[in-house]
TrEMBL record:
<comment type="similarity">
    <text>Belongs to the aspartate/ornithine carbamoyltransferase superfamily. OTCase family.</text>
</comment>
<feature type="domain" description="Aspartate/ornithine carbamoyltransferase Asp/Orn-binding">
    <location>
        <begin position="150"/>
        <end position="301"/>
    </location>
</feature>
<dbReference type="Pfam" id="PF00185">
    <property type="entry name" value="OTCace"/>
</dbReference>
<feature type="domain" description="Aspartate/ornithine carbamoyltransferase carbamoyl-P binding">
    <location>
        <begin position="5"/>
        <end position="143"/>
    </location>
</feature>
<dbReference type="Pfam" id="PF02729">
    <property type="entry name" value="OTCace_N"/>
</dbReference>
<dbReference type="GO" id="GO:0042450">
    <property type="term" value="P:L-arginine biosynthetic process via ornithine"/>
</dbReference>
<dbReference type="InterPro" id="IPR006132">
    <property type="entry name" value="Asp/Orn_carbamoyltranf_P-bd"/>
</dbReference>
<dbReference type="GO" id="GO:0004585">
    <property type="term" value="F:ornithine carbamoyltransferase activity"/>
</dbReference>
<dbReference type="InterPro" id="IPR006130">
    <property type="entry name" value="Asp/Orn_carbamoylTrfase"/>
</dbReference>
<dbReference type="GO" id="GO:0016597">
    <property type="term" value="F:amino acid binding"/>
</dbReference>
<keyword id="KW-0808">Transferase</keyword>
<protein>
    <recommendedName>
        <fullName>Ornithine carbamoyltransferase</fullName>
        <ecNumber>2.1.3.3</ecNumber>
    </recommendedName>
</protein>
<dbReference type="InterPro" id="IPR002292">
    <property type="entry name" value="Orn/put_carbamltrans"/>
</dbReference>
<dbReference type="InterPro" id="IPR006131">
    <property type="entry name" value="Asp_carbamoyltransf_Asp/Orn-bd"/>
</dbReference>
<dbReference type="GO" id="GO:0019240">
    <property type="term" value="P:citrulline biosynthetic process"/>
</dbReference>
<dbReference type="InterPro" id="IPR036901">
    <property type="entry name" value="Asp/Orn_carbamoylTrfase_sf"/>
</dbReference>
Length: 304
């Protein structure tokens, strides 16, 4: 596997690199002691414009387990691009730290950080992509089913950043992915074109639909919150539009799907019922744990 330089979007990876990251994540998960000094002497900036539970803790604890040191910066340190420019943030952090993990509102901020710091930047969530989440999801599916090219995943909900990264990851790995969204809430057209191009190379099958029935027979069904952080849409209108797309026990049984996935936080009783979220169907805690292992694989690869 060629060395990783950064991770702003999964489309930066080829199939060999992505498969290699997943294999390394499994290896780190199974033999953590072998990697306890992988980041010795390294300091990683955790730059967060948005709130977080899983992303912050999984990176903080993961870096510690690899023998590194993390420093957390939130908006109390001054809004990036307001108190000082994104470029000045990046160039200053480069004076002290070895890499930047950034959870931001805009993908453009990540690009500016990478250009100004000339240090590895990891996208911990932006408006367009959530590659670390998708890596954890692919790792979870690999643990459940083995060969990802034989897996059929269905995503039901808003065509958001999580959906985009799943599309790219599934396309690279040759998976079957069905994306089900309400009219007007489909994925970004540019991301769709990129995923389709990648899928032609790998043999992936990508289907877009507005009907939940299209998810029938999938190996796993995945949903996410109906309103992303920062979304200005009217909650009442969103509730009306998305209500037919709720994942509940009746839907799981009707579609004959045995596994449920969600990136969390979940809004119980909205996109998914507690009955499904807490059931034997649910892989959500496995996904959450795998955030750390997948991210650790990225960090190890950056400094290999």
């Amino acid at each position: 596997m060629s060395q990783l330089k950064q991770l702003l979007c999964l489309a930066e990876l080829d199939q060999q690199q992505l498969a290699g990251l997943l294999d390394l994540a499994l290896e780190i998960k199974q033999h953590p002691n072998n990697y306890s000094t992988a980041l010795k002497g390294k300091s990683i900036a955790l730059l967060f414009e948005k709130p977080s539970l899983r992303t912050r803790v999984s990176f903080d604890v993961g870096i510690n387990k690899l023998g590194g040191h993390s420093v957390y910066l939130d908006q109390q340190n001054g809004a990036m691009g307001v108190r000082e420019s994104v470029e000045d943030f990046g160039s200053n952090l480069a004076c002290w730290t070895d890499a930047i993990v950034a959870r931001v509102y805009s993908q453009q901020s990540l690009i500016k950080l990478a250009q100004s710091s000339k240090k590895p930047v990891i996208n911990a969530l932006s408006d367009l992509y959530h590659p670390c989440q998708a890596l954890a999801d692919l790792l979870t599916l690999k643990e459940q089913f083995g060969d990802l090219s034989k897996v059929h995943l269905a995503f039901v909900g808003d065509g958001n950043n999580v959906c985009h990264s799943l599309m790219l990851g599934a396309a690279i790995m040759g998976m079957t992915l069905t994306v089900v969204t309400p009219p007007g809430f489909g994925p970004d057209a540019h991301v769709l074109l990129k995923a389709q191009a990648l899928g032609q190379e790998s043999g992936a099958k990508l289907t877009l639909s507005q009907h939940v029935s299209s998810a029938s027979g999938a190996d796993a069904i995945y949903t996410d919150t109906w309103m992303s952080m920062g979304n200005k849409a009217d909650p009442a209108q969103v509730e009306r539009v998305f209500a037919p797309y709720q994942i509940n026990t009746a839907v799981m049984q009707r579609l004959a799907v045995k596994n449920f996935m969600h990136c969390l936080p979940a809004h119980r009783g909205h996109e998914v019922t507690s009955e499904v979220l807490d059931s034997d169907y649910s892989l959500v805690l496995q996904q959450a744990e795998n955030r750390m292992h997948a991210q650790n694989a990225v960090l190890v690869s950056l400094f290999a």
